Amino acid sequence: MTTSAWRRGVAGAALTALVLAGGACAATDGPDRGAGGAAYTVWDPYPQFAAGSDWEKLLQSCGSAAGVTVRRTGYDTTDLTNKALLAAQQSNSPDVLIIDNPVISTLAQAGALTSADETGLDTSASAPNLLGAGRLDGRAYGVPIGANTLALWYNKDLLGRAGVDVASVTDWPSLTAALAKVTAAGKKGITFSAIGTEEGSFQFLPWFWGSGARLTALDSPPAVSALTLWKDWLTRGYAPNSVINNTQTTSWQEFAGGDFAFAENGTWQRANAEKLDFAYGIIPVPASAGGTAPAPTGGEFVSVPVQRDTGRYDVSRRLVSCLTSPDNLLTTDTTLSYVAPVAAVQQKQVAADPALKVWVDAVNAAKGRTGDDLGTRYPKISEQLWTAVQGALSGAKTPRAALSAAQGAVAK
Q1: Could you tell me the CA-to-CA distances from 353 to 329, 334, 348, 350, 411 in Å, in that order?
Q2: Residue pair 231/223 in contact by the 8 Å Cβ criterion
Q3: Among 174, 297, 308, 341, whose CB has the most other CB atoms within 10 angstroms?
Q4: Which residue, among 389, 38, 5, 406, has the nearest Cα to 226 in the 3D structure?
Q5: Residue 315: pLDDT above 80?
Q6: CA atoms within 13 A on the CB side of 403
């Protein structure tokens, strides 16, 4: 692809990616290459880690090992997506980009990222289901640095008082029966996020995929059954109407109040869970007929953006390899509250903290949102999916009609 054609491709892809990013583009300064090309730039979505943090120290140690200075900038996720797109348009991308996994396919299709084949990145140790989120047309465009996903948190005290044995919750009927017992005992059943954004799609996907539905057929009978499940919970009072506007944060706050038996939420709440004033537990989101439902993977990929000076790729590859090495992953993923993408490191995590076992199992059953060769089609599908969920839960449409409209919009 010529430079001009590449830039046109990136510009077109920007509109697609902003569906995921949910923000407007702003101007960005180019990365500082440093004197003699000795400085390498890294952009990441971890602004919470300041200079002197373990994350910053790891970046600098990887730079030292590669014989270069690392100049790192942390952005929030939305800002990083926008800045990465603009930098690609302007041919001044950072040397290493750590970015949310659904954005990888957009940048890759636009020609903004190098493939692992081009740079010689070794992706063989990464779990295939996690690596799939960063693949396009059979090629990997980076290495996962870690993953998080969703499960069901539950209030042990509340379930005990309602006479619910959590071991009996293995499928949709048994979960619904547990919610009925809890509400009959005067408490609340389940809270989740169904807001009209990517968060809403993210939370609905375990139920959607757990029904056997596929994102290429939003109006299939299994898909309708998943949305009907949620709608019925609201109708029966098992879930509150607030879920329509809940983010994952406000949903967690409802659960933390102590009146809800269950909450769908993620690995990132582990620190907050230690502040709860009741005993809690975690189980996987059940599939409709039993077993663990595939939940979507969150987390980032470490990628190498396209550079005019291709001679920089060798050092970039060494930086990525250092950041994602098994020794460093254990520390990094513990810091980020992520499950490692490498089986051997997962085992070390569980050995150090047995409570992580349920999350490791959930991650190993999870799948990437842009998987199934959806690539850059995912943002459009996701927008229609969350629109359908909003329409059905608000009562504006039946689940079948809402999903039929969604599929029609995607087809157009």
Answers
A1: 15, 10, 9, 5, 46
A2: no
A3: 297
A4: 389
A5: yes
A6: 24
pLDDT digits (tens, 9 = 90+) for 219-234: 999 999 999 999 999 9
Strand locations in 114-214 (E): 135-136, 139-140, 143-144, 150-155, 188-191
The CB-side HSE value for 221 (13 A sphere, CA atoms) comes to: 0
- As a whole number of angstroms, the distance between CA 391 and CA 142 comes to 37
Residues 56 and 35: their CA atoms lie apart, in Å, by: 21
For 37, other C-beta atoms within 10 Å of its C-beta total 12
Q: Which residue has the tokens 């290459």?
A: 33
In terms of Cβ atoms closer than 10 Å to its own Cβ (0-12, 13-18, 19+), residue 310 is exposed
* Residue 112 and residue 99 in contact, taking contact as beta carbons nearer than 8 Å: no
Residue type present at position 247 = T
In the chain, how long is the greatest CA-to-CA distance?
71
Q: β-pairing, 150-155 with 260-266?
A: antiparallel
Check if the beta carbon of residue 140 is closer than 8 Å to that of residue 123: yes
The DSSP-derived string for 310-329 is GGGHHHHHHHHHHHTSHHHH
Whether the per-residue pLDDT at 97 is higher than 70: the answer is yes
Q: 382 with 198: CB under 8 angstroms?
A: yes
Residue 62: partners with Cβ closer than 8 Å, 6 or more residues away: 70, 318, 319, 322, 323, 328
Amino acid identity, position 406? A
Amino acid at 299: G
DSSP assigned state of 35? G
Query: In 45-171, where does DSSP find H-type helix?
Result: 54-66, 77-89, 101-109, 116-119, 128-131, 156-162
The Cα 109–Cα 402 span in angstroms is 30
Yes or no: say if 341 and 145 are a contact pair by the CB < 8 Å rule. yes
CA gap 72, 254 in Å, rounded = 37
pLDDT in tens, 191-206: 999 999 999 999 999 9
